[in-house]
Design a protein that fits this description.
The protein is an alpha/beta fold. The protein is built from 15 helices and 9 strands. The protein starts with 13 loop residues before the first helix and ends in a 5-residue tail after the last helix. Bound molecules: coproporphyrinogen III.
């Protein structure tokens, strides 16, 4: 029996299909380069801080009406070409059996991290979406509340990046516990990453079904691996994840510090490859080949600079893209909390009004 693909066709209206963002994902020409920004709904924005003054970060994620408000307010205030679901890559760890807390001023903490091979047995498969139903509620409500032509991006963390958090128990500089685990016990590492990949596939397909028109997989910390280690310890699990996703839904494959991994990331999967500022966009795209789209790649710190500098740097990126179909403008990583909102708005206007010089 052949399975019919799970295309959320009822939610993919003509207006959404012909949005500049989804056209760029499909590498079709657009009049104006689409732009959205990672962490566009975040602490740099007064409206976000007002919502957060009433509830904790986790509560905000778990209340669909508040998550919707965070996403929609940011998208409207900025005039971006796509909105991103308000959630966090670590939420999926809770139903898998890890105790997650966002401690004040410390970032995420896992109270029962995975430290030895036997701990992998406590990682439960994600049987269904019951425990993450609030995320799907936020997808549905956000889809309804957004302007009809603004695509909604769902997202999840990549197996490697999630494993880093699950093993380290929080953020880390060198990921030494996660990498030591991987070298010491490659079998248990594999089982762990397969479980994370399978759970993430269920989660992402459910977000697309609930109303997300595109998905982004965040492999934020994978740049810590050598190419050989990426091939052994991350790539097979990324391929396993991408292989289970609905092929009708565009997926952005994002990482940072991955200048030496780009071809391997492309081979693992994804419709669009996320680039950070440590690579030249044109050279990276050439290396990847022009049958994938690219997203990026302004350094978020440039948004703290004077407007003239922002303009020079944004122009350089747009010139490098050279109006080739398939470029989505973004930062190379999330907006920093100290970023002035006016600079973000100015960047968006610059991108929307860009005219090549020649
Ligand atoms: O606007 C958006 O981009 C959508 C929402 C979003 C958040 N986190 C909200 C958030 C997305 C897409 C994420 C992804 C995420 N979460 C990643 C991958 C992207 C990246 O930055 O590399 C990672 C690694 C996380 C884990 C995480 N969540 C950390 C390390 C932290 C603490 C660091 C910090 O900035 O405080 C969070 C908290 C978090 N996630 C905040 C937001 C808006 C700040 C929480 C607050 O309000 O205090």
């Amino acid at each position: 029996m052949t399975e019919t693909p799970v295309t959320p066709s009822s939610l993919l209206t003509d207006q959404l299909w012909s949005s500049s963002f989804l056209k760029a994902c499909r590498r079709e020409p657009v009049d104006v380069t689409p732009i959205w920004l990672m962490r566009q709904a975040g602490r740099y924005m007064a409206e976000y801080r007002a919502i957060r003054s009433k509830v904790s970060f986790l509560e905000l994620c778990k209340r669909p009406e508040l998550a919707t408000e965070a996403t929609v307010t940011a998208a409207l205030r900025l005039g971006v070409d796509a909105a991103i679901l308000f959630a966090d890559i670590l939420l999926i760890l809770e139903p898998l059996g890890l105790e997650l807390e966002f401690a004040k001023g410390e970032g995420p903490v896992i109270h029962n991290p995975i430290r030895i091979a036997a701990d992998v047995d406590r990682v439960r498969p994600l049987g269904d979406m019951a425990a993450l139903d609030y995320v799907l509620g936020a997808v549905r409500l956000t889809r309804e509340a957004l302007p009809a032509a603004t695509p909604l991006i769902g997202f999840a963390g990549a197996p490697f990046t999630l494993a880093c958090y699950a093993i380290e128990g929080g953020g880390s500089r060198h990921y030494e516990q996660a990498k030591a685990f991987m070298y010491r016990d490659p079998g248990a590492w594999s089982v762990l990453l397969e479980r994370l990949a399978d759970a993430t596939a269920v989660y992402l397909n459910a977000q697309a079904q609930a109303g997300a028109q595109a998905l982004q997989v965040f492999d934020s910390w994978v740049g810590t691996l050598s190419p050989g280690d990426y091939r052994r310890f991350a790539q097979p699990h990324m391929a396993r994840l991408f292989g289970q996703l609905d092929p009708a839904v565009p997926v952005i494959h994002f990482g940072t510090g991955t200048a030496m991994l780009l071809e391997l990331q492309r081979d693992a999967g994804g419709t669009v490859i996320g680039l950070d500022w440590r690579v030249e966009l044109d050279l990276a795209w050439q290396r990847l080949g022009h049958d994938v789209a690219v997203q990026g790649n302004l350094d978020p710190v440039v948004l703290l600079a004077p407007l003239e500098e922002i303009e020079v740097q944004a122009r350089r990126i747009l010139d490098q893209a050279g109006r080739r179909p398939g470029h989505i403008f973004n930062l190379g990583h999330g907006i920093l909390p100290q970023t002035p909102v006016d600079n973000v708005r100015a960047l968006i206007e610059l991108v929307h009004s860009y005219q090549p010089r020649f």
